[in-house]
Amino acid sequence: DRHLVVFKTRILLTSTPHLSPLGEMGGTGQPASKAHFVEHKISQLFQEMGRWTARHPFLVMGLCVVLAGILLGGLPMIKSESDPESLYTPSRNNRAAEDQVKWAELTERIEAQRALVDPASGPPKSPVEGSGRVLAFSDGGNVLSTEALNSIYALHKRIVNQVSITKEGVSGLKFADVCLRSKIPGSTACAYTGIMDLVDESLPDPFSPVRNLHPDIVRFPSGDAAGTVLLLGKRTESSDGSSVEKAMAVAMDYAVTAVEWEDAFLDLMLEESKKNDGKGPGGDLYSIAFQKEGSSDEELTKSTEGDTVLLVMSFTLVMSFTTIVMGSFSDFVSSKRALSLPAVSAVGLCIGSAFGLMGYCGVTFNPVVATTAFLLLGLGVDDAYVMVQSWHYSSFELPAGHTIEDRVAHTMGKAGVSVFFTSLTDMLAFGVGATSVFPSIVQFCAYTATGILFAFLYQVFFLAAAMALDAHREYSGVNELWGLLGKGWLWGPQGFYRPDKTADESRLVEDATSPDGKRVKAMPDAEAVTKFAYRYGQWLISPIPSAVVCIVWCAYLGVSIWGTINVGTGLDTRDLAPSDSYWSTFVDENFRYFQEKGPLLGIAFPEGSVVYGTDAGRSEAKALMNELEALSCLEDAEAFSRWMDSHHQWAEAGGGGGGVVS
Asked: Which of 137, 191, 244, 658 is the S-S candidate for 249 at Cβ 3.0 to 4.6 Å?
């Protein structure tokens, strides 16, 4: 009367009576067939591990806690990365690193040439260390109306005059003190922030310069110029195309040389956004969206912090569920409700150990890795369910006179094999994933594979030791609630824990199929589950249910194949930020109103690849540029700026003493 008990994804083969403590292996301890040789050897190994654990449960649990404590020391060493380009650019493509080096070299050369051409320009301008960007937008409205401009200009003045910081001991620094200076040689004015720089309060109509903007380019009093498309979103031009009449959005950019300023800027904007019952300073006229330079990193980090709260909630829910599943409401002695605490604690130890070890090894943490904790929680508790269920089933397979050591060994011989193979396959799967070319996936798989290893170790040692201690309570006939206080395994009628203890007479029930006519009483709930599983299995293999299952499975497979073929690809970093993030709103609106044209492209040739001082070198570079300008995805190719052309014309006109200079 052999039957198959399926628990989640784990299959435990059990049989009713007449089995030796070796289970399916005969009394000789030999495998039933050569095909089971490997499984038999692994089962024997886990039996010995179970025996040793049952003999030294306090030592085992102590060693687990000490190991976790040592590994937790690596947590402060974990380095976090949330930059999308770093995480989702294939590692075999070192374009980002190359670009950084090349542009640094190019910038240095440009500044050196600038000093030669215009010595009066002084030292290079201060580098940008922070920035803030504000969008004022009105869907279907006009942000160039007098009422809207008044409100937007007032907001601009508050940003410029009210945002104040302290830097290097100097307090009261405002935007004018830390702004990025204009690139115009000899100018000390701040770089332009947007069309609000054009407002002239000395005029009868201060906003008249803003109402007559050129549709292509805007020139500022500082001498700077910018494309109108970068300043105004979704514009409507006049009938003759000479000016902009309406716009749905206006952008204002504040570049600064002090990162402290952008933090104060963000505080002001968050405060402004709460005005008018959350409508912002514009009320019904317009809405605002904003970000600072470090917004993406900060918001992605917040999502990780939010996951910490969810993880605590998950542990609480899983703990509650495990307490119900492992417990019994009819037999408080054979109930294993108390094991829910060490089962969940083992998961906590495995998460801390895995993350700590990754910190020691220098493996970077990223927002995707945060999901590892949830994955390990499910896998770890699943292992615990398998082990506890195997414990219950073992009461049918062992004679009444067995000891705690025998039962732990028998349980581990059965459940340990299942937990071992599933953990091994999971580790292999994530190990293969760790060879991905995407750093984010490599880091996620490394954390998860390591976590699965520790989940396996802590369950087969820490939880097994707890099972041995709880067995002493059960065999002593002590209620599980008293067991939480140590009665039954630290103190009580049977004294301190002993691995050779057998079940009290009160814990035995009659069983004619047992060699000595008795066996240890099993938890009633486990017996009910066993009967249900047996009857369900018999029903499932009957013709009609089997046919229905096959049809449903084929339909599911078809839908899965269709979905796989049509699955979308790509990455939207907004999905990694909190759902209520101001940064997600900014990205949405910025894309909505300011994506009329694509990014401005810049091309730099590595040193030595093109010899600009020769006709052949310049011809080679021009040929490449002509090929790029011919691409259909580029607009206004005739407006492309080539310094080589200007330099060549300047040299031929007699610049630098005449002749072409290299």
From this structure: 137
- Residues facing 403 on adjacent strands: 502
Give per-residue pLDDT as tens, 307-348. 777 888 888 899 899 998 888 888 899 999 999 999 999 999
Buried b (16+ CB within 10 A) or exposed e, 335-352: bbbbbbebbbbbbbbbbb
CA 418 to chain centre: 30
Q: In this structure, which amino acid lies at residue 535? A: R
Please name the residue that has the structure tokens 């989940």: 455
Angle formed at CA 556 by CA 554 and CA 560, multiple of 5 degrees: 115
Q: What angle do CA 606, 611, 612 make, to 5 degrees?
A: 100
Distance (Å, rounded) from C-alpha 162 to C-alpha 156?
Answer: 10
Find tokens 């803030």 and name the residue: 132
CA distance 19 to 29: 11
Compute how many other C-beta atoms are within 10 angstroms of the C-beta atom of residue 655. Answer: 15
pLDDT in tens, 36-52: 788 889 999 999 999 99
Cα separation, 192 vs 219, whole angstroms: 9
What is the reported pTM?
A: 0.72
Rg for the chain (alpha carbons), in Å?
36
Cα 351 from Cα 390, distance rounded (Å): 25
Structure tokens at 229: 């498309």
CA distance 269 to 134: 9
Q: Which residue has the tokens 């200009």?
A: 153
From the number of C-beta atoms within 10 Å of its C-beta (0-12, 13-18, 19+), residue 307 rates as: middle
CA–CA distance, 233 with 195 (Å, rounded to integer): 12
Condensed to tens digits (0 to 9), the pLDDT of residues 448-485 reads 999 999 999 999 999 999 999 999 999 999 999 888 88
